[in-house]
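Exam revision sheet. Question 4 asks you to relate a sequence to its structure. Input first:
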Amino acid sequence: MQKKLGYKSFLITGGTGSFGQALTGYLLENFADQIERLVIYSRDEYKQSEMSQKFSQKEYPQIRYFLGDVRDEDRLMKAFYEVEVIIHAAALKQVPATEYNPFECIKTNVLGAQNIINAALKTNIKKVVALSTDKAAAPINLYGATKLCSDKLFVAANAFALDMDLAVVRYGNVMCSRGSVIPFFLKQRETGVIPITHEDMTRFNITLDNAVENVMLALYDSFGGEIFVPKLPSYRILDLAKAIAPDCEHKLIGLRAGEKIHEEMITRSDSHQTYDFDDHYRILPYSLSKKLCDYIEASGAKKVSEYFSYNSGDNDVWLSPEELRTLISDEVGYAI
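Answer key, structure tokens:
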């Protein structure tokens, strides 16, 4: 039996990106009869034009394409008209570019987050789910630092957003997303040389489908103020290189500015507020409401051990080169 959404109108910021298009496809495939309005909000007219051919208003009359930037609160307020749910996926996220253009990153990722909150408060939005990143945990680059600020803004907003719940979903590298390492390696193998920044490097891995599933979990199940963290497998960068280009030379080039050897999604300092929900963790706000406490008890969630951390280098689940090759082939649509 199909699950009821409970909401009839949605807006996705950064809706033309890899995640935004995957979520749009999921919502229209499974809930088209329940959705009256689905707004794709982004600043790229070319991507909107391309996406409108894939998801046309003729086939899906509830879809709308709004040009706009999260830096523009007035435009957000117009776009939020008659919308109940915001999925916030817009961000500047390329680490080298954000290191070189720091305040541009701050204007989009931090000030843009506050604009989302302000506009949502003024337009009777019911729920906001904001996407985060593993780089927001103990950040060493500007992108991670801005996303940590963004996470804090959305969590804190629950203290004064009386009729709105805001939650965050934090996850690792989305497999094959634009600008990620896998498309780069696929292209680079044509040269016969795969550049490796550090031979011990590890990363968390999530598919687009799993990313959508975790956002839907937060949409259904959040009370406000939680950071949802899925349990994900890790991979070693050398195993990824073997999966994609087993016959290529591996050339060590050194770490880039702001790059970690291992990523982290829950720090030791977060452990005091982290609960284990079987297939995912939740970092809960410090001021737990009775509603949240009752839910924790009813769900059977367990508090993690003191000084627990969730690190891609210390993970219990690893993807082998063969598993990586299969997953990548499924994502790109051809055998690699």
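Marking note for examiners. DSSP finds eleven helices and 17 strands in the chain.
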